[in-house]
Amino acid sequence: MLGPVILAASRSDRMRRFVSAAPGTKQVVGRFIAGETVEQVIPIVRDAAGKGLEVTLDVVGEDITTREQAFAARDAYLDLVEHLKGLGLGERAEMSVKLSMFGQSLPSPAATLNGGPSGPAPQFPGGHELALANVRPVVEAAAAIGTTVTLDAEDHTTLDSMFAIHEELRKDFPQTGCVIQAYLFRTEDDARRLSGAGSRVRIVKGAYKEPAGVAFQDKAEIDKAYVRILKILMAGDGYPMIGSHDPRLIAISQELARRAGRKLDEYEFQMLYGIRSEEHVRLAAEGHRMRVYTAYGTDWYGYFMRRLAEKPANLLFFVRSMITK
Ligand code: FAD
Question: What domains does the chain contain, in order, with CATH numbers?
Answer without folding.
Answer: 34-299 (3.20.20.220)
